[in-house]
Amino acid sequence: MATLFTLPVLPYALQDLEPVISKQTLDFHYGKHLQAYVNQLNALSEGTPYAEMTLEEIIRQAPAGPLFNNAGQVYNHTQYFLQFQTPVVDEATHVPSGRLLEALVGAFGSFEAFRERMTAAATGLFGSGWIWLVQNESGTLDLLPCPNADNPVKHGVKGLMCFDVWEHAYYLDYQNRRADHLKALWRLIDWAVIEQRMG
Ligand code: MN
To answer: What is the pLDDT of residues 80-98, one digit of tens each?
Structure first.
């Protein structure tokens, strides 16, 4: 019997990311948008060989279309929501350390340069999609822009951290000010989680 896909259990309450992300946004983004992707994924895979696969296997094997889109969005949002913690007060001192910092410096020159490049890539992505920090097979880090439901699994790389730039991620709190939303998101990143995702 196939196991149904479910919402990820969050390590924080829905009001805990305020004021960067409001409870109202999470009520919709996590409770309604992601729930809808999960429901669609279950409905589309039911009774097919995909029902016996892992999420990653579905993403690798599904043809372009609704099944891939819903599987991709379940993966993207699960990684997105699980990378956050309650906002820090001082963003300047909230930086990664250890091998994550070392890899970021190796790829981008400095943590600050990485932060600027990821923010700029997310601000400039046209339409709906994601910006991912990914780890290539060789272990090096890079940025990967992903339109719509595209994701690192499809590209054969490990996804470490992502920004969702679909309007539903920020419109209730920031309206058209995507750049302000992205600037604030850095206060929420749990660097220990990002480092754990490294291979
Ligand atoms: Mn989203």
So the answer is: 999 999 999 888 889 999 9
Which residues, 6 or more positions from 171, have their beta carbon under 8 angstroms from its beta carbon? none
Q: Which amino acid would we find at residue 176?
A: N
Q: Residue 193 Cα, ligand 1 centroid: separation in angstroms?
A: 19
How many folded domains does the chain comprise? Answer: 2
118 shares its domain with 166:
yes
The number of CA neighbours under 13 Å toward the Cβ of 167 is 7
| pLDDT tens for each residue of 146-180 | 999 999 999 999 999 999 999 999 999 999 999 99
Tell me, yes or no, whether 170 lies in a domain.
yes
**CATH number of the domain to which 125 belongs:** 3.55.40.20
Strand order in the sheet with 158-164: 141-147, 129-135, 158-164
168 CA distance to ligand 1 middle (Å) = 6
Which DSSP letter does residue 19 get?
T
Unique residue bearing structure tokens 């000010």: 177
Claim to verify: residue 104 and residue 155 sit in the same structural domain: yes
Round to whole Å and give the CA distance between 95 and 118: 15
Residue 144 in any domain: the answer is yes
What does pTM read for this prediction? 0.96
Q: Ligand 1 center to residue 181 CA distance, Å?
A: 13
